[in-house]
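Exercise 3.2. Students should predict the tertiary structure of the chain below and write it as structure tokens, then compare their answer with the key that follows.

Predict this chain's 3D structure.
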Amino acid sequence: MYGQTMTLTLGPDWQHDLWASPYRLRFELNEGGANLTMFTVSYDRARCLARAALPADQLIGIIAAYPDPRTEFGSERFGWTSDNGFQHLEELGVSSDAAIASWTGYWWPDDEDDDEAKPWAHCAVALTWDQADILLWNQVAQDMGVEPRAPVQSKLVDITRGVSVNAYDDRGMDITALS
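Answer key:
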């Protein structure tokens, strides 16, 4: 398989092969300290790593909206009173209107076996780096209380090369490839 390109297929099982892939790197994004410092260092490192892993001309965002953002902790304070996380993300500067694909499925492949997990609305959108930066901001901000943010999860991918970048929060980022 050396030198061979493997592609990702968009849809409910898009990350199944990535989930099982042994080609994964995990990066720490912050080293502790004050909350603001942890956030800015994490965000800067996430942006740098994403640019190193993904080509600028084929950047895709896989975005999944929380099933019901109104039920999330702090939803009223964040203004998540509608049931569409994509609308909140659009207010930050990333629209899902011109989606390449959309589907309903679980965010994590093993959620299918969890009786309490609910399917999420997903879409794949072509991105500029400015929009990718917004998604990275949103991911890093999720558990830190940093605002603004939207009730969505996202990963950046190169579907042609089979590479995924997942800044799961301020602590770390996984870069996974099919080969």
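Discussion points: The chain has one domain: 16-177. Residues 16-177 form one domain.
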